[in-house]
Amino acid sequence: xxxxxxxxxxxxxxxxxxxxxxxxxxxxxxxxxxxxxxxxxxxxxxxxxxxxxxxxxxxxxxxxxxxxxxxxxxxxxxxxxxxxxxxxxxxxxxxxxxxxxxxxxxx
Length: 107
Known about the structure:
The chain is built from 3 helices and 4 strands, in the order βαββαβα. The chain has helices at residues 24-35, 57-73, 95-105; strands at 6-16, 42-45, 50-54, 78-88.
């Protein structure tokens, strides 16, 4: 086992039980909660999810927990989350590295 650990995660949350069709307010508070976790190396908002990068799983789990708490605090009665985690132990592998690897292969 090497000394490397890169953890990339994708978090998508769907709040249920709000009075609005739009969920922008809930997503904004969730994104803000994630951005306030100082130990995360990178946080990227995308149209369908938020991608985060860290050196350890604990920070990823903290982000998930913060997301749920923030969305509940603005009135969601139910939350559905889809979480994907990629933990690489053999070498550093950032979110940017993953994109660049694909871009070098595009013809």
